[in-house]
């Protein structure tokens, strides 16, 4: 999955960015070889503890992906681990992934506002623009679910990476549709389509939304009054 690939890149990026600088501080500060060895061990232990906590979340995610009911004890353990990662390891990508998981659980529990708060907090601590954009897209969808098209579009203006452009255009189109601005919705969907390769399966989905506007039926099959909106 896109998020998983980004997460792996992020872990490598974090290490390459911060490890040399931290080591240099220790060495210049008089730690010498002993300080370097101590720092390496502390850093290794820090990452290991976070990885162990994230394992609980991974088990829950794997079960969910396979359509297996998550046992109550694993569900509770995964939530506890997620909160610990967020509180005790905020500088690691594990904490960001834990925030995404915790937010998804809030959504499942019909608590979209709580999910937004978790994601907004993660947005402030994430070091990677690609991960921040994943978070922004999820916040935008939550605002959309709360019937707040203006907040939806507002968060999308802060996107930093070209990889987010297609999803952003689609969500922007959905926000205009919510306001019954079918012309603007169609324009946004077309912007998204223009950035997709011809063979992308996502084109079928976007074309479906466009056809819904022209036929007077929304993407979820409900009736609309946008028949002439994109002529």
Question: Can you tell me about this structure?
Answer:
The protein has helices at residues 2-65, 72-88, 93-108, 112-125, 129-145, 149-156, 165-178, 182-194, 202-215. It is mainly alpha-helical and 231 residues long. It folds into two domains: 2-127, no CATH class; 158-231, no CATH class.
Helix and strand layout, with pairings?
Layout: H1 2-65, H2 72-88, H3 93-108, H4 112-125, H5 129-145, H6 149-156, H7 165-178, H8 182-194, H9 202-215
Helix pairs in contact: 1-2, 1-3, 2-3, 3-4, 4-5, 5-6, 5-7, 6-7, 7-8, 8-9
- What do the pLDDT scores average to? 80
User: Which class best fits the helix and strand makeup?
Assistant: mainly alpha
Number of domains: 2
Give the helix tally: 9
Uncertain segments are: 1-5, 18-27, 217-231
How is this structure best summarized?
The protein is an all-alpha fold and 231 residues long.
Write out key terms for the chains shown.
77% helix; elongated; disordered C terminus; 231 residues; 2 domains; mainly alpha; disordered N terminus; 9 helices
